[in-house]
Amino acid sequence: MLTIALSKGRILQQTLPLLKKAGLEIADTELNSRKLILDTNLKDVKVIIVRTTDVPVFVQHGAADMGIAGKDVLLEHGASNLFEILDLNIAKCKLMVAAKSAEHLQQNTLKVATKYVNSAKRYFQEKSQPCEIIKLYGAMELAPVVGLSHCIVDLVDTGNTLKANGLIPLEHIEDISSRLVVNSASFKTKNAQIKTWISAIENSL
Ligand code: ATP
Ligand code: PRP
Fold first, then answer.
1. Distance CA 108, CA 18 (A)
2. Is the CB of 155 under 6 A from ligand 2?
3. What pairing do the DSSP bridges indicate for beta strands 93-99 and 151-156?
4. Which of 35, 36, 170, 205 has the highest local Cβ count within 10 Å?
5. Domain extents in the chain
6. From the CA of 138, which ligand is nearest?
7. Phi, psi angles (nearest 5°) of residue 6
8. Which CATH code of 3.30.1330.130, 3.40.190.10, 3.30.750.24, 3.40.50.880 fits the domain covering 93-175?
9. pLDDT tens for each residue of 92-106
């Protein structure tokens, strides 16, 4: 049995057509059910659908053999015990620093609101910029507007969310897209099966 962890939400919508092309289908009745472990068209493959931040956790501990998650989430998690195998080039965006203006970044200690605590810390540490990180779980764009922080570290695609809140993208941290990850032990014990799937997914990109 092979278990694949998929991120629910935005990534799932772009993952399903890719998997279908690779030969793995999940019936709508399964997708629309309240089940969390879903059957597929293949007897030896099951899919679990979890929050995107939980995908590397399931894969790291071997509760899922493979998974699909955003690079943002993998960077934040640290991604130990798993191999990042393929860039799927879906859910593409950028991790950026944004603020009301560049002047707002000129601080002795920069107050940064973000859910990407580790990536933000690493970025400002590399720049030798002292910072205070304020952890948020969503609506980061609000923080500089209401004076909670000087800037944010968040994902940017079209830039519409920043613009709607009077913020501008200022510094690029990472290019983000979704990646196929594999548990390091599963990669050895289920090597043939996993390699077949990697090729099938690669060929359907
Ligand atoms: P949750 O709902 O579990 O809190 P979330 O709101 O971060 O998670 P999504 O918004 O579905 O979940 O984002 C999931 C992933 O999609 C992110 O981790 C990132 O890799 C990618 N992503 C997020 N926002 C964008 C965007 N605007 N454009 C493209 N990709 C994005
Ligand atoms: C993401 C991200 C930004 C927005 C950027 O949020 O957190 O707020 O997309 O995209 P844009 O540059 O195209 O506007 P999402 O839409 O996933 O909402 P959420 O954070 O509330 O889940």
1. 47
2. yes
3. antiparallel
4. 170
5. 2-91+177-204, 93-175
6. 2
7. -110, 145
8. 3.40.190.10
9. 999 999 999 999 999
Is 165 close to ligand 2, i.e. is its CB under 6 Å away?
Answer: no
For the segment 48-71, what is each residue's pLDDT rounded down to a tens digit?
Answer: 999 999 999 999 999 999 999 999
In ligand 2, the atom with minimum distance to the C-alpha of 154 is 7
Percent of the chain clearing pLDDT 70 (strictly above): 100
Whole-angstrom distance, CA of residue 74 vs CA of residue 40? 26
Residue 161, ligand 2, Cβ within 6 A = yes
The chain-wide mean pLDDT, for the chain, equals 97
Under CATH, which number does the domain 2-91+177-204 receive? 3.40.190.10
Q: Give the closest ligand to the alpha carbon of residue 165.
A: 2
Q: Provide the terminal-to-terminal Cα distance of the chain, rounded to the nearest Å.
A: 24
H or E element at residue 158: none
pTM, two decimals, is 0.95
